Each structure stands twice: as structure tokens, then as C-alpha cells.
Amino acid sequence: MPELKFWEMLAIALGVSALGVLGDLFESLLKRDSGIKDSGAILPGHGGILDRFDSLLFAVPFVYWFCRLFVLR
Predict the structure, then answer these.
(1) The dihedral sign for the CA sequence 36, 54, 64, 70
(2) How crowded is the C-beta side of 47, counted as CA atoms within 13 Å?
(3) pLDDT over 90 at 4, yes or no
(4) Which domain holds residue 31?
(5) pTM of the model
(6) SS3 26
(7) Number of H helices, E strands in the chain
(8) What mean pLDDT is predicted for residues 29-44?
């Protein structure tokens, strides 16, 4: 996206990196607290389908609100 400034790209990259890890940890915490090893049987041996998207739980809302507040003025 060429219309982004360098600091905006850097902030999005750092935010997505940190929040992607937090999303993964949060989903793992939910599974651990409920005593579930896999969150589904669609992808056996991979921890379930939610494990494919858990990093997006916090990263996507961050990018949306960051763009709403700083990019799309």
C-alpha cells in the first residue's frame, strides 16, 4: 500500500506481530482451561480449525481500528 507512511507500516507490522502471538496464546488458554486438546475434527492432528485462525483474533481488529484512526482520515 504505497499511500502508507513508513511509521504507519512499522506500527502495523509491530502490532500484528505482537497481537498475533497474543491471539494464539489466548486461544490456547481457552482450550487449556476447558480441557480440550483439539478445537475440532476438521483438521485432525493440527489442534482444530480454530488453530489456523487464532492469530487473527486480535490482529484483524487492530489493523481495522488503526486504519480507521490514522490512515483513513
Answers:
(1) positive
(2) 13
(3) no
(4) 17-71
(5) 0.78
(6) helix
(7) 3, 0
(8) 75
Q: Return the exposure string of 41-54: e unless at least 16 CB atoms fall within 10 Å of the residue's CB, then b.
A: eeeeeebbebbeeb
In a domain? residue 30: yes
What mean pLDDT comes out for the span 22-35? 87
Q: Please count the structural domains in the chain.
A: 1
Q: Domain for residue 9, yes or no? A: no
Contact in structure between 23 and 55 (CB atoms under 8 Å): yes
44 domain-assigned: yes
Q: Which three cell numbers stand for residue 37?
A: 486438546
- Total length of the chain: 73
- How is residue 71 written as a grid cell? 490512515
pLDDT tens for each residue of 44-53 = 666 667 777 8
Query: Does 6 fall in a domain?
Result: no
